[in-house]
Amino acid sequence: MAEPITPRRTDNVWQFKRVASGRPSDEIVAQIRARLSSQVVRVGDKLPSERELEQQFQVSRNSIRQALKSLANMGLLEMRKGVSGGAFVISGGSDMVGLAFSDLFNLGTIQPADLTEVRVLLGVEVARLACLRASDREIDALEANIVAAEAAVRSGNTPLRTELNLEFHRMLARMTHNPLMVTLTNAVTVVTAQVSKGMVPMSDRSVMPLRRRLLAHLRARDTAAAAAEMHDHLLRVQRHYLKHAGSSPGAVAGAAPRARAAAD
């Protein structure tokens, strides 16, 4: 069994000021977030104990716990139990963006037309940057995703085909090596999965060959061709979604979910 990783010492990182406002938990959150944005703190770093924070901020233990809970709900901290537990910095903040997008869709603020428009703009740039920056190993992994999706199509496994298609776009985003592109793509993918519920899927006869053509452009490092291929594909997806979204119960905010169609 691997030895547990000992968190680095960060005593000099977590230096806070005494809280003076009437809403102590809010000020505690603000001070900790300021440290998180300082680029001195790293993922995996452990905050001081509740007792130490209580002494630094000069507030009650309850205020400390309220603040830490808020930061955990934001996806910035993870609370671990046990002897070696405590509050740890995590990189899961991007998940909260997806949850926020999902909530906006459920409330009707984000409509299918908004989603498809952003998918075109974002997807084209993701394809271009992935073509420029992806390693050969990453491109090989993308091909493995395509092979698995083709097998799912042949076996009629629509749920697996859907997840593989969504993962295809997430993988492309990671190939840009731009964390903001990854965050935005993941968030958009969350809403895409919701919009596609119960929707008539696009034909695999057009989607699967697109994957292969895009893969060839990536291997050739042809950024213009990769961007154009993705642009044309996402425009077709946009027309398909807008045609079927209005008649799909799963694409209406707040509607009961049905079997998911294959997102593209």
Explain what you see.
The chain has 264 residues and is mainly alpha-helical. The chain has two domains: 24-91, Arc Repressor Mutant, subunit A (Orthogonal Bundle); 94-251, GntR ligand-binding domain-like (Four Helix Bundle (Hemerythrin (Met), subunit A), Up-down Bundle), CATH 1.20.120. Helix content is 62%, strand content 3%. The protein contains ten helices and two strands, in the order H-H-H-E-E-H-H-H-H-H-H-H. The protein has a two-stranded antiparallel ribbon. Strand 1 (77-80) and strand 2 form a beta hairpin. Helix 4 runs parallel beside helix 8 (179-195), helix 5 (112-133) runs parallel beside helix 9 and helix 6 (136-155) packs antiparallel against helix 9. The longest helix has 23 residues, at 223-245.
Question: What's the structural blueprint in terms of helices and strands?
Answer:
Layout: H1 24-36, H2 50-57, H3 61-73, E1 77-80, E2 86-89, H4 93-106, H5 112-133, H6 136-155, H7 158-174, H8 179-195, H9 204-220, H10 223-245
Antiparallel strand pairs: 1-2
Helix pairs in contact: 1-3, 4-8, 5-7, 5-8, 5-9, 5-10, 6-7, 6-9, 7-8, 9-10
Which topology of the largest domain does CATH recognise? Four Helix Bundle (Hemerythrin (Met), subunit A)
Q: Strand fraction band?
A: under 5%
Strand order of the largest sheet: 1-2
CATH architecture of the largest domain: Up-down Bundle
CATH class of the largest domain: Mainly Alpha
The topology string of helices and strands comes to HHHEEHHHHHHH
Q: Which residues form runs of ≥5 with pLDDT under 50?
A: 1-7, 247-261
Give the terminus-to-terminus CA distance: 41 Å
Question: Helix tally?
Answer: 10
Q: Give the CATH superfamily of the largest domain.
A: GntR ligand-binding domain-like
